[in-house]
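Exercise 3.2. Students should predict the tertiary structure of the chain below and write it as structure tokens, then compare their answer with the key that follows.

Predict this chain's 3D structure.
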Amino acid sequence: MKNILVIVGVVVVVVGVAWWRSGPEAVSRAGDLPRLVELGAGKCMACKEMKPIIAELAREFEGRLLVEAIDVKEEPKRAEVYNWRLIPCQVFLAPDGRELWRNEGFLPKEAILGKWAELGYDLGTKVAATQGSGRAETPANQNVEPLPPPDGDAEAAPSDSR
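Answer key:
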């Protein structure tokens, strides 16, 4: 009986550590995809306006961008690893889990796609097309590829615009 309790205790610790490490510094569970994490709450008006945008991005860019929505009131432990201050908050993460950029407040779909392009990620959109029509054109089944830096310096990393 004592051995069973020890085994159960070890399993609980291992699962707890795995859950804790699955925060923003962990590598994406969906492979080598960049991630967009939306932090919000059900009673926040701007968060309610972000909800359909986040759902649309998740559908439209499935397999190219991992999109997560976290309700900070319903899942406070999961949200706290992102050190949020205001909601809605969008956190842009590299495939290795590094934070690339964040926004506090409402962010339109076109601005989200433009920021990914600015950060060097080609999600298969024609960002210029979003300016006039408000709709991005997305080729199907296109993988995410980082764009080369504009000055040709392959060592340059995306800047942190926080």
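Discussion points: Confidence is low (pLDDT under 50) at residues 14-21, 24-28, 128-162. The two ends are 54 Å apart (CA to CA).
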